[in-house]
Amino acid sequence: MLLRALLPRYTRARCNAMPRTYMNQARPALDISGIFPPIATPFNDRERVDYDRLAENLRKYSRTPLRGFVVQGSNGEYAYLSREERVEVVRKVREVVPKEKILIAGSGCESTQATVEMTLEMAKAGAEAVLVVTPCYYKGSMNSSALVHHYTKVADASPVPVILYSVPGNTGLDLPVDAVVSLAQHPNIIGIKDSGGDITRVGLIIHKTRHLGFQVLSGSAGFLLAGYSVGAVGGVCALANVLGPQLCELERLCVNGQWQEARELQYRLIEPNAAVTRRFGIPGLKQAMEWFGYHGGYCRSPLLPLTEHERKDLRKVFTDNAWL
Amino acid sequence: MLLRALLPRYTRARCNAMPRTYMNQARPALDISGIFPPIATPFNDRERVDYDRLAENLRKYSRTPLRGFVVQGSNGEYAYLSREERVEVVRKVREVVPKEKILIAGSGCESTQATVEMTLEMAKAGAEAVLVVTPCYYKGSMNSSALVHHYTKVADASPVPVILYSVPGNTGLDLPVDAVVSLAQHPNIIGIKDSGGDITRVGLIIHKTRHLGFQVLSGSAGFLLAGYSVGAVGGVCALANVLGPQLCELERLCVNGQWQEARELQYRLIEPNAAVTRRFGIPGLKQAMEWFGYHGGYCRSPLLPLTEHERKDLRKVFTDNAWL
Amino acid sequence: MLLRALLPRYTRARCNAMPRTYMNQARPALDISGIFPPIATPFNDRERVDYDRLAENLRKYSRTPLRGFVVQGSNGEYAYLSREERVEVVRKVREVVPKEKILIAGSGCESTQATVEMTLEMAKAGAEAVLVVTPCYYKGSMNSSALVHHYTKVADASPVPVILYSVPGNTGLDLPVDAVVSLAQHPNIIGIKDSGGDITRVGLIIHKTRHLGFQVLSGSAGFLLAGYSVGAVGGVCALANVLGPQLCELERLCVNGQWQEARELQYRLIEPNAAVTRRFGIPGLKQAMEWFGYHGGYCRSPLLPLTEHERKDLRKVFTDNAWL
Amino acid sequence: MLLRALLPRYTRARCNAMPRTYMNQARPALDISGIFPPIATPFNDRERVDYDRLAENLRKYSRTPLRGFVVQGSNGEYAYLSREERVEVVRKVREVVPKEKILIAGSGCESTQATVEMTLEMAKAGAEAVLVVTPCYYKGSMNSSALVHHYTKVADASPVPVILYSVPGNTGLDLPVDAVVSLAQHPNIIGIKDSGGDITRVGLIIHKTRHLGFQVLSGSAGFLLAGYSVGAVGGVCALANVLGPQLCELERLCVNGQWQEARELQYRLIEPNAAVTRRFGIPGLKQAMEWFGYHGGYCRSPLLPLTEHERKDLRKVFTDNAWL
């Protein structure tokens, strides 16, 4: 954090973007502004976690202005890891990444009790904050009351700050705005990663919660600029696994108010972003990582590797946008 | 099974409804025709599994013509159980229920490997077949190829027959018909529980797979009669936790061709079924169980108990349809 | 009707299926049981209505046991006809078809007033009943109150009985069950064509309205048997433009209780039905009509004719199911 | 236009936001940057168009910096107007509004031929451009080929520039990006009104079409700022019927790069915008107009006036955001 304070180019911009953190002096908020990759988990050909390759990726990422790492966001294939593996990956990541990088661990489970336990373990393993996805299997019952109850229990028990996580593309469920607004008042809930892409909703959440110092992170590189334009403070973007420095540059342009240049950069990121998320999923993300000097590795089954045809289509997206 | 063979009223009907199991002599198929409750898991006030109450429920259910039990279908709150609990519950259920009742255990997990392991454990714990829900978190990548690959691996490894499970209301994903048709050819995949309620799809699956002896179970009491009318052989119905004998009576009427009487009974079941599934979810199911002499018990959080108002609305549904 | 009265095989069955029309003696109900094609409108190569070919189709259809015709259901491209054309087509159809065939005209428009006017014109043009689709452009405002108000105004003004029409595949809107139940009490609203395919909903509607003599028609051949099984009295099926006699045979089997044979026939109709509706739309329907001796003719733009590839796929569906 | 050229504050900004119109000298493009209300159509208590009140509204609007008017966007209840009324309203509007205000008329119908005819009539009635909604009733057949064919025919025939219109909330259909990109090359198709709210999609469309001078208008005030941030040139916003000058102020802040102030204003507009669109629909919009000195008037049936309760909720939204 000290280091960041020394970077003059950020100073004005960040203040500008986030006066709200200063409005609420009582809150010992963790500042989570900036770009975070939800890091992919490389597996070997026997589908075991390849810790060495993971470490190599992290060392490379750590030399860039990425603000930190989200371990076990959706792109980390967390749904395919055992409870033990989830914790172990966080522990290993903490060993590798430098202190000044913020480590956020996904600790969401379906039941409240399991989420509480996982949260405690993640904190012990070195996470500075936890990202808690909405439980979703019984989506018909996951109304605002149930979700507020769930997150409140988790935040009450958590030794580290909690970040809400709404990702309807995976969960089939939007965390309702009224629930977000209510939860933003909890002293241990500091922000939300919103991956839905509804920028009106993002703006409304910020409007209703900024007086509390609540921080909103865009959950996808496709609307990173738009997110900044309405007051988001950063992004957790799958594409940052592939084009991390470029996303940090986009962040810099946005927080510095260089919107024209920001727009040019944003345009070129939309299709690559869609390609490594909605269109080709994690197998696409991991393939693209290989092209950019990182280890994507194998996926766990039932995720299948790209077909030759898909690989060509994916590559074309990156060449068409002048990244390859 | 012996007992059932003695019931003359079923003999003709079952033959009639399922000539296909005889068409494929090579297949040592488990006959899964009949009504199965996906049993609820009663918890105590500390959210621990209440094995005594579970056993009491099962003893009562076992005195009815229910064909068997699905342990850890969606209504068993399986998503809220740890891996160890999932196996333990199956083991305990096996101890309690009589031999002639078929025990089907839900063994689906997100990753293929975890599903294989859970399947092996479920078989060891006494399951005669496993019900495997579609993995769904990365739904954008769960195309037919991925799902066929997943289920094939599981069925190859499983010591007991595998039943597919498509429940879009929870997973946001329909197992595509072409994948079902392809998987029906696997000698260890014997059927599907389809909870989507699209009766045209149910008919098409039966049309395309019945020459293989593939068995289709309706996944909800709301379309049980319609399912029989197009050739389904039974049902796995949440409502059977509450009105088990009545669903068995509906089965009897359908397989005996007493459609007029069947229809009268079916009509009265639609709203109660909707109430304990879509409308009030598992908390509604458990509340209704209490009214009918079973132990519903507590739910695990984040599921909340019904409000007083919801409870009244639920009760009205049962009284309006002359069940209370 | 005379002809039908002579067919003893229908007598018992119809009574059986529809005792409700006798329960409500005050109601001078039009009996709409049976199979109706929502007739296609053949256009010439300049996209003008080809009345000669339409008449030829109708003469052929009229020699089959089809109960009557729906003119300007969705498959009649009514959305592409001017108000004048809509009325003119009905007038011409009435001239051609024999008296004993029931003529139902689609008179739905977006505004209530336009629907009332169109209804009056349709009745004058010879329609014995009108089919009124849900207004849908402002779907966010089309709640039960608005829809009940709309249909009540139309039914109050209509000189002929009104049939509700819910077709979410086109309108993006389900006519809510509570609105249907409320409207079923209007003496001039005699039934509903439900094309949604949710058989549980169909059953519930029948359960809640049959004491009023309200008649439910399945809106697609894909669930015609299932519809009969839960108490529907017939169907308005696009596929009846192509395989009319076959659908009448399916009707006969269902009302006579020959479910085993009915099932065999139903199975073979599911894919052809999907092909001429969801999959290839009206262009597919019109192409298939040509193969079966009817005039499909051109579509109006923006509907495009099938590509060569699509035509082959469509044909394969009919040959695979042994219809060609 | 002259007037605008005199406003120095706009000059730099507009150039900045739209260098592309200068990149394509061959194109005699109509510059449609700025804020347009899709004007509501006031009806009297007999549901007739109230031309006097409409004229009064327009005279008031014309004294504000609104760039022009969209007559018969969705909020004009165009779906409830006869063909004759649609043209007549445009004619009357043209008589009232000053020359420097751009008049855009909605001319979309379901069939291509009807749309062409309506387009010709709208141009004759004084429209300087037409807004053409996607045909949508046969949405299953409205793929890119069909839509490109439709719009090409319309644009070929139109004497005035054509603006595409994608409004999935009403039509259930998104005009696919590939179709937009293809159509942007037509010399007579100058832009799109996109009401879907998917800002990533908006950015992608701009990325792929700006070299052609194609202009994107945000279709809702909820994401107006975000739209500007990614390069949209204006907005067609229902809320401009109520808070027109305020939306023009938001425009000014955005094009001048005063993002901080813009954001503050945008925040206060999100809920009022949602209230007069998604939440309370056109009845809500018309009610709010009355509070702000305009004539909302009656709606046509089946739209119902707000209940007393809804009216209170609507008012609260405006007071909570300090507009009343």
Automatic annotation (TrEMBL), chains A, B, C, D:
InterPro entries: Aldolase_TIM, DapA-like, Schiff_base-form_aldolases_AS. Pyruvate binds at V236. GO terms for biological process: glyoxylate catabolic process. One of its GO terms (molecular function) is 4-hydroxy-tetrahydrodipicolinate synthase activity. It is an enzyme of class 4 (lyase). It holds the Pfam family DHDPS. It catalyses: (4S)-4-hydroxy-2-oxoglutarate = glyoxylate + pyruvate; (4R)-4-hydroxy-2-oxoglutarate = glyoxylate + pyruvate. Its EC number is 4.1.3.16. The keyword Amino-acid biosynthesis does not apply. The active site is at Y165, K193. It comes from the Eukaryota. PROSITE patterns: DHDPS_2. Keywords: Lyase, Schiff base. One of its GO terms (cellular component) is mitochondrion. Homotetramer. PANTHER family: 4-HYDROXY-2-OXOGLUTARATE ALDOLASE, MITOCHONDRIAL, DIHYDRODIPICOLINATE SYNTHASE. Belongs to the DapA family. Catalyzes the final step in the metabolic pathway of hydroxyproline. This is 4-hydroxy-2-oxoglutarate aldolase, mitochondrial. It comes from Pyxicephalus adspersus. The lineage of its organism: Eukaryota, Metazoa, Chordata, Craniata, Vertebrata.
